[in-house]
Amino acid sequence: YKEIPDGYPQPGKHVVYDESELIDLDNVPLNGGLLLKILVLSIDPYLRNRMRDPSVRGFLPAFEIGKPLQNGGVAQVLRSEDPKYTAGTYVAGSYPFQKYLVAQASEVNGLRPVQKKGKLTLSAHVGVAGMPGATAYTGWKEYAKPKAGEVVFVTTGAGCVGAIVIQLAKADGLKVIGSAGSDAKVEYMKSMGADVVFNYKKTKVEDVLKKEGPIDIFWDNVGGEALDAALANCNKHARFIECGMMSVYNGDNAYQMKNLNYIYQFEIQLHGFIILSLIPKYPEFYTEFANRIASGEIKYNEDITVGLENGGAALETIQRGNNTGKSVIAVADY
Ligand code: NDP
């Protein structure tokens, strides 16, 4: 991590690929710990939030200039002096953006063994079966309070979180309206079961919600204009699940909200949440939901960037909305 971006993060400028630090894989001392080969790293929208001025408040600390970025990943244990982990085991955890890691198991946040099973690939453990999947699953369980026949509007419906929300909402018998930023993404939302789909770059959210609403639940991944339109086109006591605000992550705060007054007029229940707070409440996510993914009941797609040296490009791609599906870096073959 080289420089704080003031707009979109650019590879080569704000993040750089650097091979100056090498380790001797056969002889590096483990001191009772593990030598991990990192296979997959996740690229998530919130990474941009951590690339900020450290004096600005945020839900996680700002990244430190000069150190690797850090995020969820899957690794394989190459060597182990820890009796709990044998060589060959796959482990998910929070890893620095590098190819190998020597660490004590206790130093890796969220370290847990993972396996491939049916349609559940290793990389899915950082996506549909990992942090973003848990976000959709737990946020929906906690706040949606769905009743069959109600109407939900899901933004970034072709992304990892959004596509799962669409599937959960359909399973609960709702009418689902989904928005996304390209025609291919619109087709993907349709294949996930959404009833009404549109490209928000071509059709105004307001027009669609006027025709297909009012809505009872809003799953908000973008904020801004979509949130404003949802506020003006919802039923009394609508549930607004404030999951993310993609439209402001890269410095563009130009949109002026007009409809905030409907929050009290329609007695809207507005729930902001961070997955770290919800996941302890829903441990079955890692078993029951993982089984539904393995069986193919819950569908997902991935946008795989090959090579850690291309990680900076993947970081920019997701912020610009040019990813199709869960963005991951294949650091090594898996
Ligand atoms: P996605 O794969 O959905 O990628 C982000 C998408 O956001 C892009 O593909 C793009 O889709 C859309 N986007 C980008 N810029 C804009 C913009 N200016 N206006 C509107 N949409 C934009 O990522 P995830 O599924 O991983 O994450 C989706 C959301 O969930 C994000 O807001 C993220 O921050 C949030 N999140 C929240 C968590 C929590 O704990 N609260 C945890 C995990 C994720 P399109 O082409 O459709 O515009």
TrEMBL record:
Residue ranges constituting the Enoyl reductase (ER) domain according to the UniProt record: 58-329
Alphabetized SMART domains for the sequence: PKS_ER (SM00829)
Domain of life assignment: Eukaryota
Sorted UniProt keywords: Oxidoreductase
UniProt entry tagged with the keyword Cell membrane: no
Pfam families noted in UniProt: ADH_N_2, ADH_zinc_N
GO molecular function: oxidoreductase activity, acting on the CH-CH group of donors, NAD or NADP as acceptor
PANTHER family named in the record: PROSTAGLANDIN REDUCTASE, PROSTAGLANDIN REDUCTASE 1
Name this polypeptide is given: Enoyl reductase (ER) domain-containing protein
